[in-house]
Structures are given as C-alpha cells and as structure tokens.
Amino acid sequence: MSDLKTERIEQMLDYIMKKCLWQFHSRAWDRRDQNQGILSKTTQLLCDEHVALETPADRCYWVDAVCLAEAFRERLPWLAGMSVPEIKDLMQGLHERLDYLTIDGSLNEELTDQMY
Amino acid sequence: MPYHEFECSTCIPERKKHAVVKGPGETLADALPLGYLNTIPGTISERGCAYCGAKHVIGTPMKDVIHISHGPVGCTYDTWQTKRYISDNDNFQLKYTFATDVKEKHIVFGAEKLLKQNIIEAFKAHPDIKRMTIYQTCATALIGDDIDAIAQEVMEELPDVDIFVCNSPGFAGPSQSGGHHKINIAWIKNKVGTVEPEITSDYVINYVGEYNIQGDQEVMQDFFKRMGIQILSTFTGNGSYDDLRAMHKAHLNVLECARSAEYICNELRVKYGIPRLDIDGFGFEPLGNSLRKVGLFFGIEDRAQKIIDEETARWKPELDWYKARLTGKKVCLWPGGSKLWHWAHVIHDEMGLDVVSVYTKFGHQGDMEKGIARCEQGALAIDDPNELEGLEAMNRLQPDIIFTGKRPGEVAKKIRVPYLNAHAYHNGPWKGWEGWVRFARDIYNGIYSPIHELSKLDISKDEIPTDKGFKTARMISDADLPEAVRNDPNLRRYTGKYDMVAELRERTYPEFARQGAQEAAA
C-alpha cells in the first residue's frame, strides 16, 4: 500500500475513532455488520450511487453513513479530486483497517462471547 | 501502548494488565486494559455490587413505582443525596425508599412472609401507586426466598397492581455492571410487550440508557418534542413503568449509555426488529450530530437543524467564555463507565481541557476501546483502580481537577485536587447546549475556587500571608489572559437560571400534522 493511501486511511480512521460510536458494538459479529453496513453505504454516498433503504436497519446504517460522508467531504479536501474507482479502493482499505482494529486484531476478550 | 505498573501495586502483579499509557503511533490492537473481571484479592476496589447496579442505577429512576429491596435495611441506602435522578412527579422514587428489613431470624426461618406483608403495607401506604419493583439482595438470594411466587400471589390478590422482580443479588457479577445486564434482560423478558401504547406521532422512539441526572432526560425530551417525536419510553430516568412495558412499539431505539443499557436495545433489535442508534448527548457538536441523525432517520432533519442553529447561537458565546479560561487545564476523567467515552474528546475539543487520564470502575473492555480511541496521546487509562493507585496517578499527573464519584472525589480533596461529581453532577443538568455550559461553569468554579488557593497552605508549616487580600475566582482565572480575551465583548459567563428544568416542564410544543392525516386529507 502506498504511503499516501496509508496516510489518507489513517486520517479517515482518526475521525471515526474520535467522533463515532457505531464501530464499537459489543460482539464481533455485530461489529462486522456495523462496519459493513455503514462503510458500504458511505462509499455509495461518496460515489453518488444509489443507496438501498429497504429495512429499518438499512436506514439506521444510512444515517451514520450520511454523517460520515459529510464529515469526510468537509474535512478531507483531497476526496474531491478522486475518481470513483479511487474512492472505492480507498474505502476498501479503510474497511479492512477498521475491521482489523475493532475485530480481527482487537484485544477485547468479550467480542467472542456467544451471548449479549 | 505499554502497560503501566503502579509502584503501589507491584505486590499485586495481576494489576499490571489493567492500565496502559496511550503512546504515539500505537493502536488499540497493541494494548488494552483488561476489564469486567472479578476484583483481584488484595486490591481495594471502588466498585459497587450487582444489586446496586440493578436497583440504584437502572431500576430506581423509574418514577411511578414503589421500589423495594428484599433484604437488610442497609442495602437500600442510596436515595436522597447519593442519587440525583429527579422526576417530574415530585420525585416520588427518591423521596420514598423501601426495604423489608430482613433480620437474623428471617435468615433462619425464611423471609417470604415478611416480604408479602411489606408489599401489601407499601401499597396501602401509597394507594395512588400501583406499580412495584422488588430487588433480591445477597441475604435473600442465599436463603432461597421465592420472590416471584410471592409477587404472583399479591398480584392475584390485588388485581390492579403490577410487580416486577429483579433477581440480581450483590454477588451476581464482578461489579454493578453485572446488575445492569440482569435487570435489562429481566425487564425485556418479563415486562416488554405487556402494554399496548397509544401512538401519537409518526416518529416514535425509546430513549434508552438515560437516567435524568438533575434533569438530563427532560432536557433531551424537550429537543425530541420540539422535533415532533414521541418518546414512547425512557429507560429509565423519569420513565414510567407502564410506558416501559410498551417499548416494543417504538420505531427506533436511541441509545445513550451503551454500557448500562445496550443489552435491552440489542434484544429489542433481535426480538422486534427495532434498530439501535447510539448517540452522544453531551457537547455542542456531538449532541447536534445526534439530533441530526435521529432527524435523518425519520426524514425530519430540518427540525433538528433548527434546534441546533438556535441553541448554538444562544449558548456558544458562553461556552467560549469558559473555554478561554479552561484551555490547557489538566483533567483526570475518572467516571464509572460511559462518561469516559462520552466526554474524553469533547471536553478537549470544546473546552480546551487536556485529559491526562481516563479510568473506569465497572466498564468493560469495549468502554476502554471507546475511551482510549477518543482521548489524546499520553493519557493513562486505568481499569478498576484502587485508592492507592488513584493517589499515585494524581501525584504523578498533577491534574487541575478530576471528574469522578464521591468516594474517590473526597480522596482527591485530601491532596488538594478539586473534583466534580461525574455521576450525580454539581449544578446540572449537563446535557443539552445550556447544560454543557453549566458543566463548563462547574469546572471553572472547581478549578478557580478561592478555597483551593487557601487550602494549599499548610498552617503547620507555611507562612500565612497577611498582607494580601482575598482573590476571587475571576482574579485567578484572568491573571494571565490577554486583554483582548479578558474583555472580549462577544463572550459572556453563564446567564441561565439556577433551575433550568422547572421551565421545561411548563413548555408547550408545536403540533405537527401526522402523515396519515395528511394523506387522508389529500
């Protein structure tokens, strides 16, 4: 991964970690759903693509995605100069990094509890 | 993020994995304090018990209920003074507290008869109250009293009453957090779905994990009502027992304190398909974003934006007056659980405070993940500290103030560190735009209180200056401020009232036409 891409992912990550709560649900499966649901919708919004809102859960993901996309656009001026494939590639990298920090590399021993 | 070993705890090596320093370039995957574990023998924890977590944190803020502890009278201590979850029904649940007063003879011969007699006596003493919660304690759990059976018996004899039983004795978990879990699950299992509510809006929420500390719930309720949202229930501050039985009919669960109440949100999501939206009610920007998110969910974000614009314009000059005087002050943010992450970033961003340490008494590792992610580099994060560790940390970090509970707060005072009560507040409410300014004012008054200047002098050895006059808070806080800031005409101190909640209770709200009605008219 290029240094520039890594740096940009870290900037996005810094915002999520400081300002958001949705990535820290209490179980691994729940975090995976949250990361997937919100980041995929954020990517669609950043790429001006259609966002499906078929269920209340979809709508809930979308709400956080709207706020995240707005914050990224406002704080990260370099986003405006990126093409759709570049944004998708960057968001994919962000998704992988967030999954690592909050799920796969997390030291939180409660994540794998079967019950809430 | 290296683990931090306290000098005072070298004799308890297990403690080393309970504290870390947030280092540069390090992540949550490098080190994370252990959490939600049984207290280590030899360390004197400041935690509460699982009974306390169930009753005193979550159960008792319900307002129209007789809350009775089935156990020794001492278990029911926390009412006036120690708890400040007020309510709009003249604080019934705070004014009256009940215990069955179990004694040695009941332990020997059983206390079920005593319990039944107490229940009936309490209902007779308060004929207008028809709802009751009963909390098991260690003693009555160990002797095996069947509280559910007694409650059922009474409900059959008195058909107009309803009783909820919470079996969460003190030993049912490592800390009060175990009790939070138990009462969440017991409530959804036994009570949710037993009342059908009247729906009065197109936008219906449960407001979950909010305990109306000094009026926080009423502040938030005001915003939701201004947006035309029906709060079906609040779990549990200022909440009504029967409203909480109808939680299954909400469109959205708005979750404030995930530590104490995520369980019921998760279960409502699984059982009834109601989504969970986590919010931050503290701080201008986080609160604004939270209202906006709720607005977006229902398609009424313009109503949220109107509130954000009005409130920000009204209160920002006052917050900034305090920010100018608090910038760079060092804080140990040492609450029980969720405020560690609700406040860690926003007191830095909006008040200029530097958080040098975060701790949690009963939080889980997930709370530490959130708190460490939000605080600045160099902060010391501690799980379940003991008193000596707290003292060692304060001596090392030299904070200007700490935000914590009464017990560690009084310890801090002994080494001349002012504290604010993070659980029950000083002059709250602290939620909402105005509340946030009140919090800033309390911090200012704590740090710059003239009494702390005087208390730093030790009359047994220091020379007491008799040629200098008394310094007011303003003289201390403004001494090094640039002239332009000191006399900035755009900034001002808090101008709200002593009691900001009374007015909220008198307020009327706009009627928003319901979508169904509009469609019928078209």
From TrEMBL, chain A:
Looking up InterPro entries in the UniProt record yields: Nase_Fe-Fe_dsu, V/Nase_d_su
Q: One GO molecular function term?
A: ATP binding
Cite the entry's keywords alphabetically: ATP-binding, Iron, Iron-sulfur, Metal-binding, Nitrogen fixation, Nucleotide-binding, Oxidoreductase
Cofactor names from the entry are: iron-sulfur cluster
Q: Which reaction does it catalyse?
A: N2 + 8 reduced [2Fe-2S]-[ferredoxin] + 16 ATP + 16 H2O = H2 + 8 oxidized [2Fe-2S]-[ferredoxin] + 2 NH4(+) + 16 ADP + 16 phosphate + 6 H(+)
Q: What is its EC number?
A: 1.18.6.1
Pfam families assigned to the protein according to its UniProt record, in alphabetical order? AnfG_VnfG
What is this protein's function? The key enzymatic reactions in nitrogen fixation are catalyzed by the nitrogenase complex, which has 2 components: the iron protein (component 2) and a component 1 which is either a molybdenum-iron protein, a vanadium-iron, or an iron-iron protein.
What is the protein's quaternary organization? Hexamer of two alpha, two beta, and two delta chains.
Its recorded name reads Nitrogenase iron-iron protein delta chain
From TrEMBL, chain B:
The yes or no answer to whether the keyword Phosphoprotein is present is no
Transmembrane stretches in the record are none
For this protein, the record's Pfam families field holds:
Oxidored_nitro
Catalytic activity reads: N2 + 8 reduced [2Fe-2S]-[ferredoxin] + 16 ATP + 16 H2O = H2 + 8 oxidized [2Fe-2S]-[ferredoxin] + 2 NH4(+) + 16 ADP + 16 phosphate + 6 H(+)
Entry's Gene Ontology molecular function annotations:
ATP binding; iron-sulfur cluster binding; metal ion binding; nitrogenase activity
Q: Which cofactor does it need?
A: [8Fe-7S] cluster
- Listed EC numbers: 1.18.6.1
Q: Report the residue ranges that make up the Nitrogenase/oxidoreductase component domain in this protein.
A: 49-447
Q: Which residues form a coiled coil?
A: none
Q: Which InterPro entries match?
A: Nase/OxRdtase_comp1, Nase_asu, Nase_comp1_asu, Nase_comp1_CS, Nase_Fe-Fe_asu
Alphabetically sorted, this entry's keywords are:
ATP-binding, Iron, Iron-sulfur, Metal-binding, Nitrogen fixation, Nucleotide-binding, Oxidoreductase
Look up keyword Iron and say if it applies. yes
Could you say which protein family the record assigns here? Belongs to the NifD/NifK/NifE/NifN family.
* Assembly with partners or alone: Hexamer of two alpha, two beta, and two delta chains.
- Please give the name of this protein: Nitrogenase protein alpha chain
State the organism of origin.
Answer: Thiorhodococcus drewsii AZ1
